[in-house]
Amino acid sequence: MTRADTTRFWVGASTLGALGSPARGIRPLDIGADGTATLGAAVEVGPNPMYLAVSAATGVLGIVHELADGLVSTWTIEGDDLRAFGEPGRTGAADPCHVAFDESGDWIFAANYSGGRLTAHPSAPDAAAEAVHTVPFSGSGPNAERQASPHAHQAVVDSARDRLLVADLGSDRIRAIPLGDLPEALPHDDTRDLVVHAGAGPRHLVIAGDLAIVANELDRTASILDLAGDRELAWFDVDDRVAPRGLGLSAVRLTRAGTVLIGDRDADALVALRFDPGARTLERVASVPTGGRHPRDLHVTHDERFALVADQGSDSIAVIALDDGVPTEVVATLETAAPACLARVP
């Protein structure tokens, strides 16, 4: 049991050892109001549990297992332990790298990177989480090495417009998928997609009312999208002082203070941008080196006093103090094998 002033996360990790040391499973992590961190023991949940999400409606933990034959599994959280909620289900596509629940918690959406598609899985007790709906994508981008085909990288529920937004790094599109026909169907019309500038490589996004902010992995920019008009309004360099190393940007979060936090893998840093929704602009205000390598994911505590950055390449998690949403310094470094995701418990 965690205290009310403590934020709990579950840490997803690579068990394969391709980047960082092989992990034994996923781990609970508690961050206190003073930044004190407590890592729990690893819990084995199957191979390569790279990305996790916790349903705000049901409290169920969903996991995508990033494998050539992708898997989705669901778990009930019981303190520091987990119990199988349903049976694992296959995505039918390669390398699922992100998972999200719908608002009811009855559906899980998996973004399959190499498979270039979205899959929808039921979340129900003692039932198999096999893919019920599959939405394949098509298209490419100007980066011949990274954009020869679609690469679904993230799924986000756009509740105000009753749809799912899927960042497709391979085609420079944010796929827009209506949710109104679930459970019977999950239709997709690619003429309704949001197009970002060529070569951007959209990876992750956050929604802010009628706007969205996209972290573009390939060209190191952040885009602002108009979700009411379904168009890209502008894009901004995240940190033009950094020499690209071909790794690019990773995760993005938006604080209540209006600060956008983005993981910068070229600089091994956490970058902060001030978001002005009226002017629809982004301006860099800070960049703090994490002290680790390859920041794969990031999140913030409920009170937004601290940001956490999962540095997969250095087997570490950086705890970084925030001042009005702006990162100031690393206050702690936690050792854990190949952290790839930080799923916050609501």
Quickly list its features.
five-stranded antiparallel sheet; mainly beta; single chain; 346 residues
Question: Overview of this structure, please?
Answer:
This protein is mainly β. Helices cover 0% and strands 51% of the residues. It has no helices and 29 strands. The mean pLDDT is 97. A hairpin with a 5-residue loop joins strand 4 and strand 5.
Tally the helices: what do you get? 0
Structural class: mainly beta
Rg over CA atoms:
18 Å
**Helical coverage, percent range:** under 10%
Bin the strand percentage.
over 45%
Low-confidence sequence ranges: none
The biggest sheet amounts to: 5 strands, antiparallel
Shape: globular
Distance from first to last alpha carbon: 14 Å
Average pLDDT, all residues: 97
Order of helices and strands: EEEEEEEEEEEEEEEEEEEEEEEEEEEEE
How many β strands by DSSP?
A: 29
Summarize it:
The chain is mostly beta strands.
Task: Give the topology, please.
Blueprint: E1 7-13, E2 27-31, E3 37-39, E4 49-54, E5 60-65, E6 71-78, E7 81-84, E8 89-90, E9 96-101, E10 107-112, E11 117-122, E12 133-136, E13 152-158, E14 163-168, E15 173-178, E16 194-195, E17 202-208, E18 211-216, E19 221-226, E20 231-237, E21 249-254, E22 259-264, E23 269-276, E24 281-289, E25 295-300, E26 306-311, E27 316-323, E28 326-335, E29 339-344
Antiparallel strand pairs: 1-2, 1-29, 2-3, 4-5, 5-6, 6-7, 6-8, 9-10, 10-11, 11-12, 13-14, 14-15, 15-16, 17-18, 18-19, 19-20, 21-22, 22-23, 23-24, 25-26, 26-27, 27-28
